[in-house]
Amino acid sequence: MIPILLSTRLSQAVNIEDLRELARRRVPKIVFNYIDGGADGEWTLRENRRAFETVTFRPRQAVAVPACELRTQVLGMELSMPVLLAPVGYLRVMHPGGEIEAARAAGRAGVGLILSTVSGHRLEDVKAASTAPVWYQLYLTGGRAAAESAMQRAMEAGYQVLVITVDSAVIGHREREVRDGMEQLLRGSVWSKIPFAGQVLAHPRWLARFLLDGGLPDMPNIVTPEHGVLRVRDAHTAMKREAFSWGDMRWIGALWKGPIVIKGVLSAEDAKRSLDNGAAAVVVSNHGGRQLDGVPPSLQVLPEIVEAVDGQAEVLMDSGIRRGSDIVKAIGLGARAVLCGRAYVYGLAAGGEAGVRRALDILRADLERCLKLLGCPSVRDLNKSYLRAPHC
After folding, report:
1. What residues are annotated to the active site?
2. In terms of pTM, does the model score above 0.90?
């Protein structure tokens, strides 16, 4: 009876905000605020959404579009629509299936998934779960030896693209997480968790799944010669010790046999530097407002990056995508595709694989409807002529 009710509620979600509300009800506040929150005062988090509201449409009326072509190619890989699931860490805390269930949903939808270094599932298992492209996102957590081991495993498993996140020299100060107990859940002692026990006990189904899954997972894709598999409680400390610098591209590029994508680009200077270091694509991203608060929204700087790249590499964008119309605006301003993070993680927290599928169905229906109302037959035909954008 409970799975039937859950399925019904997921099917009744008509937008990503509905999935967000379902997620809020289904997981403890600690976990929800990890998904939902941003850094410091959350100005950038809010501006990511407001930026889309400042861009309006210029539809071509009385144009019959009986069917829309949503397919596109990113780095030569076919996607059923211009969407990849962004790398998000600790998904196994939201739902035991975590990245594996997200990968299954992505494969069935024909969209890509980018696996975070700090996944709770083995990268080989995540790759095996999807029939669509799966890329590997790299932090240097654990040091060079751990990164080299992970890259070698990823290549052997069939990952074709490496995504290097460059905006995480330290972890952003996410006040909701500090206030509501995520730090204590992941890294604190038993005693430090006691003040937050009430909100966990208020979600018995989540707690049962969490305990049956073994509690906090280790980081099976971060294996160091000295200490073996990294424990989740040590992940933040390890990240602080090993931040990426441009000089690392020499040994990374020598090892990785495939395209490399630089994620976290917010200026023309860094876009050009990415090209100089061999990037096949860049992701215009402020980490969903979770790192440096006060940086501009990704959509606002997207035209600057597109101009700087000048066709020498592909440009992707993330941060703030909640609707199919957001995807249209990003593509119209020059992005080849978008990365969605919170949009699918809300679905995962609300209902596992079924929730991720529902999130992707919502985005697909939004995207197709928006194209038809614009009088645009294909995502490949989108350009600035369909938009009014104050920052262009």
Report:
1. 287
2. yes
